[in-house]
Amino acid sequence: MSSASADPVAALAALRAEAEARIRSAVGREALQQLKTEYLGRKAGRVTAVLKTLPSLDPEARRVVGQAANDAKAAIERLLEEADAARVALEGGTAGRDLTMPARYAWRGAIHPVTLVIDEICAIFAELGFSRYVGPEAETERNNFTALNFPPEHPALDMHDTFYLGEGKLLRTHTSPLQIRVMETYQPPIRVTMPGMCYRRDAFDASHAPVFSQVEALAVDEGITFVDLKASLSYFARRFFGRETRVRFRPSFFPFTEPSADMEVECRICHGSGCPACKNTGWMEILGSGMVDPNVFVNVGIDPEKYTGWAFGMGPHRMALLRYGIPDIRMLYDADVRLHDQFVDAV
Amino acid sequence: MNVSLRWLASLLGTDLDPIETRDRLLMLGAGVEGMEPLHHDLAGVVIGQVLEVRRHPNADRLSLCEVNAGAEIKHVVCGATNVVAGKKYPFAPVGTTLPGGVTLERRKIRGEVSEGMLCSERELGLGEDGDGILELETAAAPGTRLLDALPLADTRFVLEITPNRPDLLSHEGVARDLGAVLQQPVKLPPIPGAPAGVPRAARAASAGETAGVRVVIEDAVGCPRYTAAVIRGVKVRPSPAWLQDRLRAIGARPINNVVDATNYLLFENGQPLHAFDLAKLRGPAIVVRRAGRGETIVTLDGQSRQLTPETTVIADAERATAIAGVMGGAESEVAVETTDILLECAYFDPARTRLTRRTLGLSTEASYRFERGVDHDATPLRLLRAAELIVAVAGGRVDGVPVDVHPAPIPPTTIFVRDARIAHVLGVEIPRVDVERVLTALGCVVGPKDDRLAVQVPAWRPDLTREIDVIEEIARVVGYDRFPDDLRLFRPGTVPDAPSERLADRLRRVLVGLGLHEAITSSLGPRLDEREPMVLNPLSQEEAYLRADLLPGLVRRVEYNWRQMQRNVRLFEIGHVFHKKECSLPDEEIRVAAVVTGARRPPHWSEPEPPDYDLFDVKALLEAAARVVRPGAALAGEGSELVMRDAAGVVVGRGLEPTADRPAWAARVFGFELSVEMGEAPRLRAAPLPRSPAVERDVALVLPETMAAADVEATLRAGAGRLLERTWPFDEYRGAPLASGARSVAWRLVFREEGRTLREAEVDEALARALKEVEQRHGVRRREA
Ligand SMILES: [Zn+2]
Prior knowledge:
Mean pLDDT of chain A: 90
Radius of gyration of chain A: 39 Å
Structural class of chain B: alpha+beta
CATH architecture of the largest domain in chain B: 3-Layer(bba) Sandwich
Number of domains of chain B: 6
Distance between the termini of chain B: 91 Å
Shape of chain A: rod-shaped
Low-confidence stretches of chain A: 1-5
CATH class of the largest domain in chain B: Alpha Beta
Strand content of chain A: 15-25%
Strand content of chain B: 25-35%
Distance between the termini of chain A: 70 Å
Largest sheet of chain A: 7 strands, mixed
Shape of chain B: elongated
Largest sheet of chain B: 7 strands, mixed
Helix content of chain B: 10-25%
Bound molecules: zinc ion
Order of helices and strands of chain A: HHHHHHEEHEEHEEHEEEHEHHH
Strand order of the largest sheet of chain B: 27-30-31-35-34-33-32
Number of helices of chain B: 17
Helix content of chain A: 40-55%
Largest interface: A-B, 97 and 98 residues
Low-confidence stretches of chain B: none
CATH topology of the largest domain in chain A: BirA Bifunctional Protein, domain 2
Mean pLDDT of chain B: 92
CATH topology of the largest domain in chain B: Phenylalanyl-tRNA Synthetase, Chain B, domain 3
Number of strands of chain A: 10
CATH class of the largest domain in chain A: Alpha Beta
Number of helices of chain A: 13
CATH superfamily of the largest domain in chain A: Bira Bifunctional Protein, Domain 2
Structural class of chain A: alpha+beta
Oligomer: heterodimer
């Protein structure tokens, strides 16, 4: 303040030069903020201090000094703004832009929920040494039924409402004909998962589709038993549904397995207390399985006295409904982009 | 099949808990699809005895009753005309909620207070009769709960029985399975009022006689056993209450005593029976034979049916009067005026019954059971029980000795089971005593034979024919939950991963990475061209053919999305297509197809309207897919389509603008389809990175519209020689000052030679050579600067 009284205009010029030099060399937002306070602060700013002396000056001096002080203030403000803009440009490259605005994406695609389920099933069984094997959807009656121990004119055929192509050809009603194909092509030990599309003469509704997926698995070797079946499928259920999942096996019937078993897990919706989805039993059927019937081994030229095996089949379409809470199986065929957009992170 | 818990309990002679029974049935392999409590809503109704009946002072058709309801005498206004002092009726006191949800209140009826209600059959949900109140013949004291006095409270199970278990299509069979676990034998309850001394059927080889009726089996394949009894003097009328209650408990409607008796036994032991009106049988005779060509019959449902020689029929002396094992004929149906009946209890061949049922499209409770196999040993015993029941409920007497025509008795099945084999399959040793206990409880006769177990199987279990069948029975009754589930070491398998699965997986990831959604569409569709295999029995003509291409199905999915007002759609599918082939399975091929329409990039505030997809985007998708599944295939433009050919020149893929039903606001749709080649993708190898500098030149050439840039580029490459590392068109221009019909395409050429720095002069020389070649071959020149 003493300098101001000596020659306030010269002092202001010096102050301005000093501020300019310091602003140019300042780095970062905080340093600029401090300089702004030091020169222009309302209480103790050095240029403000000069302005505060104005009332004590004579009118002529008040005009000249006032002009110089306001010029200095404007110049320093401009320098600070420029420096801040430069800083922003340097730091972010989005000078003057609002970073809360949405990001710029490329289109994102999604794997189909059913494929996700199939891949997960196969990946879990890969941990148990299973490879993947596939085959045609149009099949012979022999591979689809006869070789799988379906007697002709047997009521078991009613469980498979079949689309026929004529001359002993049909659309496979399950992935089980792949059991025949793989056993006629390879020698035991065999450990394969076999995904694919199957066909049954069911009209489309919320829970049925005439074209649907199945995953079949087959393990054949010496010394394989019902205990191995239970162990492998229980391992799968706990890997797929969670470590604490309760599992049970119920007797069932398939012409190509004996003993046959349906595997059920604790209802995913009510967790065992009973709800409409599980018909109040607290359990949900997940797959059908069993020990390979000796007649099937005979039909493919494997000695049933030496080899035993187990097999299962399950429906990934149904599993996808359960897993992702999709209410209607038809939604899995619509290809509605609003559904699939929800699966872009599930890759 | 519907099963009554009370009925099961009466066969086992023990009480059964509904929940426990359901869980036991499930763990024995009977699917329990439903479980319904019956009449538990009658808990508040008690036995009321009417002490006094007076006229209502203010209403002619009402009466005032004093009712002993146990603890108190109640004052009741009653509208029924059949109310009689001294009799007992169901009484619902004030506060009771009746079936249907009405709660009774204390109220005045025409000035007289009523403290409850005497109920009719219909008001209690026990039957159709709503005309009068239900008179009870019970010794129970007034005030006793109705449910304690009458056998009404029950639980109905809806069972889903697998086709291998015909024995479970009856209460006796279900009870037997339960009994095997509960260690409780099954006993058929005695029939109230059954006559004594009905003779057992006498066997005849292929023709016999009972009470003057000749019974002949001509078709022993379709009908291996036929037993019959003649009952004279029956009175057709409603059944007694116990029989009606049993039938209602399983959801069957009582009809008359003869029909109800046969239905009751059907559900008790699984044996379908048939009663003919003897007066309508000509001869009188029963001839089991094949139908004649062109023979017809009117069945019980009133339909006239054309028969074929494949069908076994029950005929009288002249014409078919029932379709064996499926349905009776209308003409010989038992009616109110019937007095003499011929009762049939037979074993019809499962396969023939199924064939007949399918040919006629007629499925009945009887055909369902014959098709799966009924007990062929018990036929005469079941005839006897049926005759006793009919006489008990409909009166009359059995005339003469019933006949059992049985041309070739079927010997019992004996199966030999090895202890070691049981452990070999099940993984656990089951003690011999447990094995014997389980099998005996199921009705088998077991005994040691050498080091094996000889198991003689009951005829009600046609599913048990081999050692493995018996092993399954042991596991089933022991309980699947009793087996451990520890993972054990395994040997690796010999089957490699399918190459097509690996390729599909990589392809899927590439296309998803390019922003496309995977679709799975139905492979059944309408007919589009000649290649599609036809389904013989489609659900509709819209789904009568197997797809020959994927793309049409994906375009339908785009149209679906358009209907949902979605403009931006990007889909791909990897799936099978089918091509018709004479005398063999269709040719089946794995394909990949994709469709894109709408904005090429997601709209963004920095670019609110990005450009739409075009054929060059699809070209990129097709090339990206081909690099995975068709390495080495060449892509060229042919007309307005992109065509991809393999090394042999065979078309393996196409990119195009498919026709679509496009709304005005939607963008054009583009797509590709490519066949996936099985086999491993070539191994990727990295090239060394260049160390010498490159020299670049840009040249713009003026091409006629009709000239392919790729042809010009090939000439440029050849002309520039080995110093040219790569070249590509980087710009295209049409318009002034170019003449119309001409365009300018600009190429960038990158020259390099590894190991040295190129001189400007040699690059210029190479470029000049290239330009000269282009001019000579195509007449194309550099664009004036
Ligand atoms: Zn539930």
